[in-house]
Design brief:
The protein is α+β, with helices and mostly antiparallel strands. The chain is built from 6 helices and 6 strands, in the order E-H-E-H-E-E-H-H-H-E-H-E. The protein has helices spanning about 10-25, 65-75, 95-100, 105-110, 115-130, 145-150; strands spanning about 5-10, 30-35, 80, 85-90, 130-135, 155-160. It has a 6-stranded antiparallel β-sheet with strand order 3-4-2-5-1-6, with helices on both faces. Strand 3 (about 80) and strand 4 (about 85-90) form a beta hairpin. The radius of gyration is 14 Å and the shape is globular. About 45% of the residues are buried.
């Protein structure tokens, strides 16, 4: 199943795109999200890796502001720390990959979604710079529609892998 991936410079734009994807009939269980959690109560990465994977962030008690809104859109949101990046939130299929491969960083988690290592590193750098990453596993006939929805809501560098 192809993966459509894009980065958003605005958490609000990412939230609107996820809402539009869901409204258009895309399965919430196939949507992934990765973003820095700059408001995390945990502070910086302590070198141990996982902070609290599996913690329910949908209440917004740990993640405030716009990220709290995004967390409310997707099930299975967890918080963790990626060495060299710091605290992040992740949801969807990528969250499981990140929790099992914290050492590989975001790029390693994207490999499980079919994103080549060099492009995964590019997207990891985008998250490090503050962008919100949204990825969607889509059927072949849905790829173009998913990519267009992401672009319509301000996604940069939309690619299919």
């Amino acid at each position: 199943m192809p993966t459509v991936i894009g980065s958003f410079s605005s958490a609000d734009d990412a939230e609107q795109a996820i809402g539009a994807l869901k409204d258009d009939g895309f399965d919430e269980q196939e949507i992934s999200l990765v973003a820095l959690d700059s408001e995390s109560e945990f502070g910086q990465d302590d070198g141990r890796g996982v902070l609290s994977m599996g913690q329910d962030l949908t209440s917004g008690t740990t993640t405030g502001g716009a990220l709290g809104g995004i967390a409310g859109l997707l099930a299975g949101v967890g918080a963790l720390a990626i060495p060299g990046i710091g605290p992040i939130i992740a949801a969807g299929p990528i969250a499981a990959g990140l929790s099992g491969a914290v050492v590989g960083g975001i790029a390693g988690g994207l490999l499980d979604l079919g994103v080549p290592e060099d492009r995964g590193q590019y997207y990891e750098d985008r998250v490090r710079e503050g962008d919100v990453l949204v990825a969607l596993n889509a059927d072949d006939q849905e790829v173009d529609r998913a990519a267009q929805i992401m672009r319509d809501y301000g996604a940069d560098d939309v690619e299919t892998h």
